[in-house]
Automatic annotation (TrEMBL):
GO molecular function: protein phosphatase 2A binding
Family: Belongs to the IGBP1/TAP42 family.
Protein name: PP2A regulatory subunit TAP46
One example of a Gene Ontology biological process annotation: regulation of signal transduction
Span list, region Disordered: 162-185, 351-403
Biased composition (Acidic residues): 176-185, 366-375
């Protein structure tokens, strides 16, 4: 809607359009163009209300007509929409919104619409303790829930009256419970607007506290930026990034020697040496398992040259032989032995299955074998004859009882 059309529109139409924009922005995230348009329409409503002189400082809520009662909400709607405007200078937006909220609260206070609890806390300068703040928020929340329930009840009552009116116009029977005798429409509308203002007052106090806290935080940040200076802050950020980059490059240079895959470590003692810093990964192929050294021998550096050093190194040494290899090295040696044994067995198996070995076993006994067998038999017979002539123990005179 252009500026010309807005100038030609009456106040009720402008307020209804602004109320719809406010409802849209409250229920969902409206775009900035719609929010700015709503703020412009509400400012136009303020100008028209001021020119028409609808309200006076000497009036109360009972003196205001039902038709003009709704225009009291214009500053509240403007404060909520203005708070949603996106702008670089956020502090200025907060100040304008707070000014409109204070204007709305002061006018409602003059109209005797603000609860006594809120008036007492405002005259005392706000609650001092956390208990008072909590009690105040709970009471405000209860009033807000009661106002929302009442508005919902009024809405349902209007819907029932509308259904009853349609049923009466169509000459159809009315359902049970829908033939309630309602008050006049003007009284119901007045009650609805007063309840809406009561709800708006609760929201205005909460929003005002929130905007004050946000303004304090932004002011503190801005003051710190002015003291330190934006250039110094930017330079500090750059210096921090430079330090991080240099530290990363130094660590990368240190890790270069470990980027290539090293040989697998098969010795537990060497792995422990690497972990404790006594050896490096590059020495894996040169590492030899050394038996642990106890006592003064561990304090003697280098080779033992003198007899005194050799005697001192033997102090507190164990009385048994220490292992000369680790479990891993013994396993590797045993694995080599098994591999050699398997290779030898495989070679013997191949020789056993060869043709010349099978052919030699198929040959019959020769004459030399027969001669050897005859000589062995004669020797065995001679030995048996000798054992018959010389019984066991015959030459031992000490075995005889009276010899």
């Amino acid at each position: 809607m252009g500026e010309f059309n807005m100038e030609e529109m009456p106040l009720p139409a402008l307020f209804e359009q602004a109320r719809q924009i406010h409802q849209l922005a409250s229920e969902s995230s409206a775009d900035q163009e719609t929010v700015r348009k709503g703020c412009e329409v509400l400012r136009k409503c303020e100008d028209m209300i001021s020119k028409l002189g609808l309200f006076s400082a000497n009036e109360t809520k009972d003196d205001i007509s039902t038709t003009n009662l709704k225009y009291i909400l214009v500053p509240f709607y403007l404060a909520e929409l203005n708070e949603k405007v996106a702008q670089d200078d956020r502090i200025q937006i907060l100040k304008v919104s707070q000014a409109k909220l204070k204007e709305f609260i002061q006018f409602c206070e003059a109209m005797e619409l603000v609860p006594e609890e809120e008036l007492e806390s405002s005259t005392q300068g706000g609650p001092n303790s956390l208990v008072d703040r909590r009690a105040k928020k709970i009471a405000r929340f209860k009033r807000q829930r009661a106002a929302e329930s009442k508005l919902l009840e009024i809405k349902e009552r209007k819907e029932r009256r509308g259904r009853s009116s349609k049923a009466a116009a169509l000459s159809t029977p009315v359902e049970v419970g829908e033939e309630d005798v309602l008050d006049d429409d003007g009284e119901e509308e007045r009650e609805a607007w007063l309840t809406t203002m009561s709800l708006a007052i609760c929201k205005a106090f909460d929003l005002l506290e929130m905007l004050k806290k946000e303004e304090e935080m932004l002011s503190a940040i801005k003051e710190k930026q002015l003291q330190v200076g934006e250039k110094e802050i930017a330079q500090a950020v750059l210096d921090e990034r430079t330090k991080r980059a240099e530290a990363w490059h130094r660590d990368a240079a240190t890790r270069v020697q470990y980027t290539k895959p090293a040989q697998p470590i098969t010795c537990a003692t060497f792995a422990q040496d690497v972990l404790e810093g006594r050896a490096t990964v590059s020495q894996a192929h040169e590492h030899k398992h050394q038996p642990p050294i106890f006592g003064p021998a561990s304090l003697v550096g280098g080779s033992l040259t003198s007899e005194r050093e050799r005697i001192a190194a033997k102090v507190f040494q164990p009385g048994f032989r220490l292992p000369t290899m680790s479990i891993e090295e013994a396993g590797l040696a045993e694995m080599d032995m098994m591999n050699k044994w398997q290779e030898r067995n495989a070679k013997l198996f191949e020789e056993a299955n060869s043709s010349w070995h099978k052919d030699s076993r198929k040959l019959g006994p020769s004459e030399e074998d027969d001669e050897d067998d005859d000589a062995a038999q004669e020797k065995a017979r001679a030995w048996d004859d000798w054992k018959d002539d010389n019984p066991r123990g015959a030459g031992n005179k000490k075995l005889t009882p009276c010899g």
